[in-house]
UniProtKB/TrEMBL annotation:
Binding residues for Mg(2+): D111, N237
Binding residue positions for acetyl-CoA: A389, N395, Y396, A432, R449
Active site: residue positions: H372
Binding site for UDP-N-acetyl-alpha-D-glucosamine: 12-15, 26, 79, 84-85, 148, 164, 179, 237, 342, 360, 375, 386
Record-level Gene Ontology MF annotations: UDP-N-acetylglucosamine diphosphorylase activity
Name of this chain's protein: Bifunctional protein GlmU
Catalytic activity: N-acetyl-alpha-D-glucosamine 1-phosphate + UTP + H(+) = UDP-N-acetyl-alpha-D-glucosamine + diphosphate; alpha-D-glucosamine 1-phosphate + acetyl-CoA = N-acetyl-alpha-D-glucosamine 1-phosphate + CoA + H(+)
Quaternary structure and partners: Homotrimer.
Residues annotated as domain MobA-like NTP transferase: 9-140
Pathway(s) the chain acts in: Nucleotide-sugar biosynthesis; UDP-N-acetyl-alpha-D-glucosamine biosynthesis; N-acetyl-alpha-D-glucosamine 1-phosphate from alpha-D-glucosamine 6-phosphate (route II): step 2/2; Nucleotide-sugar biosynthesis; UDP-N-acetyl-alpha-D-glucosamine biosynthesis; UDP-N-acetyl-alpha-D-glucosamine from N-acetyl-alpha-D-glucosamine 1-phosphate: step 1/1; Bacterial outer membrane biogenesis; LPS lipid A biosynthesis
UniProt region (Disordered), positions on chain: 471-523
Cofactor annotation: Mg(2+)
Gene: glmU
Length: 523
């Protein structure tokens, strides 16, 4: 079968979607990193149509703005009043030319994010191969409630009509083959038939499905293409269906990743966006979300409990219990646990960003370590340096952000503050507890801390009767007793050293008698 290139694809996205109960237009709700209408547009683009038209209506300004960012080549048609699917397609054809384009026109819905380009291509190819005036994409579903039923000739032959659920008889409601809302039309015949669509139905609207009967009565062939997986045609009308679709699409994405060589320990707790890429032998632990344009290099290890957005992870890097957005993690780097990498963070090869470290707009050179409990913002750090624990890069003066530069092979003490703008030269050291406010020359030791001062008795005077005061008093009493005992021992030793042996013995006997002890030989 040859591949058919459609003359146009029309996407219907004018509805309000009241059952979503949201200020966001239904087609702009997202799953797996893309809007509902964005998924449909992506599937349509897979066919390389000559024209792509999206019919907008409710909240059209928001939807149109989104579409222009999504794909500048999209044309939009406005349905000012939502008078049915047939009316919406008429608005699209007016945008393309009232006579309709010559060739195949596909019509699909903006709320069917699981529909694939492969299935749309199958529909277009079947339509062309069978020489149909219209071909409807159908599916057999377990529960057809709410869907339009496909009515065929006896024996399951040609399609004779599509009957909406509200207008269907009990016999017709028993049919399980349903209309997906996706069609392939002969463009010129579609334009002619739309002019004959009536509104004498329960909704008083122009049904696109009536075109099938009109064309059939005119002697044209009406056919069907059955989707291989009925879940592809599922429309989204509420948040429950949105969650179900997200789970199904995520299952596809995770399966694709595993088939491409990624080890996913627990697919049920791993979530991917459609823009995520990866290389073989990446490993993903449970509880991991890979979002946006995140990329995993070969032999990288991510998770558990990690969320990466628009982040690149280099070959052999490990990222654990981390949140990162717009970051670059170099080859062999180690990140986490409990690390936050904000936009603009670039970690070089074999960098360590350890536990409870936050970085923002920071460039860290090869082999440098920021092991724990630190904030590095608006900074450039060279190669093979070490930033001590509890360090803070003070980048904001209340009005502007400033940059701190730390050179290569530096050894910076714990609990340092770097008040930007400031530069620490290569090979420099700093003392723990220093507040660095001036540039540090290469090879220097920076010591920037005041002398310690102890104000004795402050707690007893300022917090009398408190638990701290009582604890201090007890400690002081114990210290005083210990000091007195030590002094007594010192005095006794001093006397003993100045006495003759006989005097010392007499002193000993006197001391023993005073304490009530009896010499052993007298016992």
């Amino acid at each position: 079968m040859s591949v058919t290139r459609p003359a146009a694809v029309v996407v219907l996205a004018a509805g309000e979607g009241t059952r979503m109960k949201s200020a966001t237009p239904k087609v702009l709700h997202e799953l797996c990193g893309r809007s509902l209408v964005g998924h449909v547009v992506s599937a349509a683009r897979a066919l390389d149509p000559e024209q792509l038209v999206v019919v907008v209506g409710h909240a059209r300004e928001k939807v149109t703005a989104h579409l222009s960012q999504l794909d500048p080549g999209i044309r939009t048609a406005v349905q000012h009043e939502q008078n049915g699917t047939g009316h919406a397609v008429r608005m699209a054809l007016e945008e393309l030319g009232e006579d309709g384009p010559a060739g195949t026109v596909l019509v699909t819905c903006g709320d069917t994010p699981l529909l694939t380009g492969r299935t749309l291509q199958q529909l277009a190819d079947t339509h062309a191969a069978d020489g149909n005036a219209v071909t409807v994409l159908t599916a057999e579903v377990p529960d057809a409630t709410g869907y339009g039923r496909i009515v065929r000739e006896s024996g399951g032959g040609a399609v004779t009509a599509i009957v909406e659920h509200k207008d269907a008889s009990e016999e017709q409601r028993a049919i399980r083959e349903i209309n997906s809302g996706v069609f392939a039309f002969d463009g010129r015949l579609l334009a002619q038939a739309l002019g004959k669509v009536r509104t004498d139905n329960s909704q008083g609207e122009e049904y696109l499905t009536d075109v099938l009967g009109i064309l059939r009565e005119a002697g044209h062939r009406v056919g069907a293409a059955v989707a291989g997986d009925h879940r592809e045609i599922a429309g989204i009308n509420n948040r429950v269906q949105l969650a179900e679709a997200r789970r199904m699409l995520n299952g596809r994405l995770v399966e694709d990743a595993m088939l491409a060589g990624v080890t996913v320990i627990d697919p049920a707790t791993t979530w991917l966006d459609v823009g995520v890429t990866y290389e073989p032998d990446a490993l993903v632990h449970p509880g991991t979300q890979l979002l946006g344009s995140t990329h995993l290099g070969p032999d990288s290890e991510v998770g558990p409990n990690t969320r990466l957005t628009d982040t690149r992870v280099g070959a052999g890097a490990t990222v654990s219990n981390t949140v990162a957005q717009g970051a670059e993690i170099g080859e062999g780097a180690s990140v986490g646990p409990y690390t936050y990498l904000r936009p603009g963070t670039r970690l070089g090869r074999k960098v360590k960003a350890g536990s409870y470290v936050e970085m923002k707009n920071a460039e860290i050179g090869e082999g440098t370590k920021v092991p724990h409990l630190s904030y590095v913002g608006d900074a450039v750090i060279g190669e093979h340096s070490n930033i001590g624990a509890a360090s803070v890069f003070v980048n904001y003066d209340g009005e502007s952000k400033h940059t701190t530069t730390v050179g290569s092979h530096c050894r910076m003490g714990a609990d340092n503050m770097y008040v930007a703008p400031v530069t620490v030269g290569d090979g420099a050291y700093s003392a723990a507890g220093s507040v660095i406010t001036k540039d540090v020359p290469p090879g220097s030791l920076a010591v920037a801390r005041g002398q310690q001062r102890n104000i004795e008795g402050w707690v007893a005077r300022k917090r009398p009767g408190s638990a701290s005061a009582l604890a201090a008093q007890a400690a002081q009493s114990a210290d005083e007793a210990q000091t007195a005992a030590a002094q007594d021992a010192t005095r006794a030793a001093s006397r003993a050293s100045s006495e003759s042996p006989s005097e010392a013995a007499e002193t000993t006997r006197s001391t023993e008698g005073a304490t009530g002890q009896v010499p052993a030989e007298e016992g």
